[in-house]
Description:
Layout: E1 13-20, H1 27-31, H2 37-47, E2 53-54, H3 59-69, H4 77-88, H5 92-97, H6 99-128, E3 132-139, H7 144-151, E4 160-164
Antiparallel strand pairs: 1-3, 1-4, 2-3
Helix pairs in contact: 3-6, 4-6
Amino acid sequence: MKIKSDFVTNSSSTSFIVAWPIKIVTIDDVSKYVSPIEKAKIVYQDAIKQTPKIIEKTRKTYHAIFDQLSNDYGLSYYDIYDKIAEREGVTEHELIMNPQWNSIAWEELQKSYRCKAEEKTIDFIRQTEGYYLYFFKYADEDGDFMSEMEHGGTFSSVPHIAISNH
């Protein structure tokens, strides 16, 4: 038996879909909404590398947001397996061992993801129309400060969607 005796990490990252009330041009455009200034500087540096789009009720805006969300909402495999096993009157073990049931579970999982992502996308566009769309990603594996960027409410003053990539 091997025993791990040193530090073990459980790193994560989070993607943020952010609706900014104005186009970010200066650090002041960020520091109005993000503090402390150290965080604002990082957001500013990441924002000016982007070409933001105005959020409007168009297919282009919809797909930009939906594509980010579509793989991150929905039920887990376990929830799907429970649901199908109960519905079909089989055990989870029988379901897992059957390729046909696995295929059905996968299809239902994807459908769930798409439905939830679609709802979230439509609501986000409705609430933020006219704002500017930015995308950010921060990971706690990049040090304490970046962990604070990821987990410390960086975008709490602006409309946003956080997508955990654990």
